[in-house]
Amino acid sequence: MQKVALEMHLSETAFLVPRSDGPTSYDLRWFTPTAEVDLCGHATLASSKVLWDVHGADPGATLRFHTNSGVLTAIRDPAGVISLDFPAAIAQPVPDPAAYAEPLLRAFGLGSADEILWVGRNRIGGPGGGDLIVEVTPDAFGRLAKYPTSLSEISRPGSVLECRVLSLTCAGCPPAVPLPSAAEGDDLPDAAAYDFSSRGFAPCVGIAEDPVCGSAHCALGPLWADRLGKSTLLARVASPRGGDVRVGVSGDRVALGGHAVITMIGKLLHTKG
User: Fold this and answer.
1) pLDDT of 149 strictly over 80
2) By the 8 A CB rule, do 10 and 206 touch?
3) What is the pTM of this model?
4) Fold of the domain spanning 2-87
5) How far is residue 112's CA from residue 133's CA, in Å, rounded to a whole number?
6) Catalytic sites, residue numbers
């Protein structure tokens, strides 16, 4: 599976195996080009779409995925929005935030330490013992380079930034963040509709920048729900590709919602020898 994921060269490749305990129950594993990960949102969204639209799963059924992070479920509403039920991954403030300032300035070209508002880490697992969440000012977020050039600060063993995913986040959606391009008839949100924005970097597991990191929102969702006093949020992912995530927070669970589109169907051939 790891070799296949390396050949696919996408941020994550999902592998599904039907289980014997029900027609909509599957074992699910995710691999980046260099490592297996314990949680992945957008590859689960894609898996659900394929099961419903290609493999004939009951469109009204709840899909159940058995993973290294427990049992995850997926449902789809009449409008085609797929909602995934994931465990919350609450981030706690790091004990010495000042130690993160210089590495963050080097990695992302921030203007000063004053632009770093909060640094936290959760226990989702992986390099560094958990994901890292860094809140910056909206102005600083809007000035981030399209392709940061110093991500080695994150992947360097022993660095305080070492982690599975480093999420940079800010309140709202700064003017510099590109919004979705509206096709004819599309009803898309404007910048004021977004509660927070983020970008996710994961060089430790072979991903310079994740186009849309669903699992990172298991931490970002609870963080911003608490900050804003809301249980339902709309998030903008400001990667070069871009994307939207609908987030619902309820206790120790996070619902992640979005659309999926099938663009290619192929056949993988295996030759012995």
Assistant:
1) no
2) no
3) 0.90
4) Diaminopimelate Epimerase; Chain A, domain 1 (3.10.310)
5) 18
6) 12
